[in-house]
Amino acid sequence: MSESARPVASLVLRLRGLTARVTPATRGQWNMWRAIRYTGEHDRFFNLCEVLPIPQGRDLRATLDAVREVLRRYETLRTAYLPTYDPARTTYYPACGDRLDQVVSAEGEVPVELYEIPPELTSQEQILEFLEQVVPRLREPQFAAHARAVRDGPEPPIAAGGEWPIRLAVVLSEGRPMFLAAAFSHLCLDSDGIAVVAQELMRLLEGGAPDPVPAWQPADLAIHELSPAGQIENERAMAYIRKVFRSAPPTMFDLPRREPETPRYIERIMRSEAAMRGAARLARRLRMSKQTVLFAAAAVVLGQRSGRTNTMIQVLCGNRTDEPLRTHAGNLTVPVPCAFDFTGLSFDQIVLEAVSASMSAQLNCQWDQKAAWVERRAAELAIGRHIDVATYLNILRDDPYAPQDDGVADLRELMTRTVFTPGESRIQIDLKILLMVLDTSVHGAVSLLADTAYTPVHSIDEILRGMERLLVAGASRDIPAGRLSEVTGIRPPDRGPGWVRCRDGHADLAATRDLWRTVVGTSPADLYTEVDRSGGHRMIAYAVAPDRSIMDLHHQLTASLDERTDVRAPDWYVRCADPPHPAPGRASWTVSRVLEEGTGRTSRSPALTPTS
Predict the structure, then answer these.
(1) Counting beta carbons within 10 angstroms of the beta carbon of residue 607, is it exposed (0 to 12), middle (13 to 18) or buried (19 or more)?
(2) What CATH number is given for 3-220 in this structure?
């Protein structure tokens, strides 16, 4: 960072006499709290920034008065978080007894750094470059949102030791405020929430009078979520989650694990005007939204990378369809598992199917993730495989003021200008792939952050380029199902020998056999496969286990999966009284006395019954 981007002064903005209260955290806050605790408090990944121009004629006092009014108006900017469990625990999903409170403070202070644009920086490009040096300083490090409770008689506790989730900088030119830069913790605001706050800030900076404090704050949302009406919303969403967990493929990463890079999680950014113009033209041709088109394209390329046309993707949603949530200043975003099967469909048909898939995710995004964790564990027991919800998709909304496609530019020529650049790589984050559409204007930017233990670096660019090719090709015509791979150029994964195709994906047969023998212990045990009617493989497990039921064995094996995506539970268990005879293969068990056989699940599924 250049010396010119250092603050020249700082001041403190103090607030007193505001509303203080404590409620349980909202579902959106819970989700982000866990993600931040997993990633680490020193990682800036979940710090979001906004830079606003300050209108001419507004001095520093007027600028700070506008900020002070926004802090008064939006409780989320004065909130710290109080967990009732050990915050050092990094498990992404909480135990059912865990609790997180949001603690809104009545008083506090926010430091404001002042920067001066050097007089030699006169062009717009130079000033933008200066601002790009200021923003990272605000993002470092992660906000210290963890508070401790301080009680004063019967009054609610206030937060102590928890930083307010906002940092500020005013950028001056010859002493006059030019820009207001702000960093926000994702705990307090999502991107749409930032837009709400930014719009109010701009209105105040332009001389608008303060409005009444909004009646719907995050604390009010938390109270609603716990109400009978909120519980009905949760039950409806849980029914959707239950259906997805039990019908969609349990993982997109039934792949051999490779030696990861250092750092392990690599981000690449594709800046492609061609991709966004192509998406806009396809959206106009089919009379769909650009977000729907981008959702469909992302599902195709992520599915192709995992070698499947039936996908499960966690879509980041925050349903803001109606008031009071439409203009809610808070973090509503939660990841919603979305099942999307495009088997045999052309790309136009995939886009049409994406409408209902994305809508279902949006309408069912208000759910209790502690209950979903229990549901996920129950589904894992039922299907016998770890449900790996580690593929994420985040598509930001259109900026109505950004330049859009005019329908004239040559997309093929624009593809030659596409640029790939490194993003922010990191050591630890709870995902395997995050595809983000950062800019949907003609300046389009798409990033892909991937776990290199499953996705090598060269495949990251291949996925992004494949998405661009698909959007450009689909802009003017439909693409048949049989040509999708040809158009994207994405190669299916090479799993190598020893992997078999099962009803729910692929599995490493030798690794699954080793896990089965570990569960059984010292007694004889083996595992075989047979081909089913679809051409896939059904796993049959044998063991000498006189003292354990097949249900006990299935429960123990499922518990031993330990988030592995290369192994799965057998489809059929055969519990024998006698050790196998010295004959080759499965025939050695055919003369053993069978004590019990079945799926090991609570209900028998015809799909699991052996054919022989």
Answers:
(1) exposed
(2) 3.30.559.10
